[in-house]
Here is the input.
Amino acid sequence: MTNPREQWASSTGFILATIGSAVGIGNIWRFSYVAGENGGGAFLIIYLACVLIVGMPIVIAEMAMGRRGGGDAIAAFSANGRTPRWAHAGWVSVIGCFLILGFYSVIAGWALKYFIGALTGDLWRVASDGYGGFFGDFIANGAEPVAWQFAAIAATMLVVMGGVRRGIEAANRILMPLLALVVIVLAVYASTLSGSAAGWKFLFVPDWAAFGEPQVYIAAVGQTFFSLGIGMAVFITYASYMTPDIKIPRAATAIVAGDTLFAVIAGLAIFPAVFAFGGDPEAGPQLAFITLPQIFLKMPGGTIIGALFFGLLIAAAVTSMVSLLEVPVAAVIHRSRQRRFGAVILVGLGAFVAGTPSALSYGLLDGIRIGEIAILDFVDRLASNYLLPLGGILVCLYIGWFWRRVEAVESAGLATSPVAELWIWAVRLVAPALVLLVVLDSSGAI
Ligand code: TRP
Here is the structure.
């Protein structure tokens, strides 16, 4: 290795940074609309099962790889010295992160525009035709979405330039507790609105018919990958900066529980408000950007609540983009003579350029449809439904079948654990088989 490895200052720092990666737009914007479209309570139950059976074993597997790999995603796939060809699997993650960062930064840019608008009051002076037109005009504008996308990426680049400890860890240490506080305040506030009980019911009382619908299972697997941020070597890369004292099973439990709890609490902030003010819980991706601002306008104190909400969204987005940027940055630092600063500039600007077609996909490039869907949605689906599951399956097969059992179990910190056998078979068979099934089943959807 040419570069001395950076390290987290503490195990709390490591856990906060990984939770920061996991908790993002996926927990707030994506979870609420996907749960809304797929039956609320029924989706939640299937999602929890997926998180336990598929998510948790893969988080542990990625961390075990990172701990042994001692380098970037690519090195980690050949660290046992017997499998040089598997290095290609690492490239899938590096390129995947780059692609995801491109479109993710566009949505983060929307959140940033709404946040600033909520602070200056511009967001609350919208004409009477409502937020449908406001949002539509905004994303149809040529340059504006690109400018906000750039601002979101630039903020992320600044954090990652600071390095593992003084950039990533420090930012997460400040932002994550703040995020937890804001989302809890919002959920408590939402529960005081009259009519809010219907939102709780929607989220917790399952509609049994939904269990018979295959698309609910597909949505749950996709959401598990996206929300935890697995399959793209984030945990491999972050775990490579780990000090030896960190206990992987414990860290993985904290991260998975934290991410899931955050999504549920965000749901408790959103659905009660939606029901109390007669919004449509099945509004889809526009829920956060069209339905919610309308509700904030009607709510007592809504302009403050709205500013808090969009502040939450952008802060959560940035800590996730930080991980998406760090994976390719770590690879560039590891594989070239670039230092961190140069690598961040290179990858960050590259991802910005790669993401501009997504930013323009409802404006200048609105005419372009890939199999009927717009560019941004295409990249989202390509990444969430194919790249992430593929990355997850590769991690499982690599650890499960190309590492010796004892290597795997020891690196995972499960050597003396009663669940070691359970984990090994989840990684060898159960998780990859389930994911493969779902991906094949949904391949008609793109
Ligand atoms: N998990 C984040 C969210 O919920 C997004 C994210 C961060 C991600 N890093 C990732 C998604 C890696 C896939 C792969 O918004």
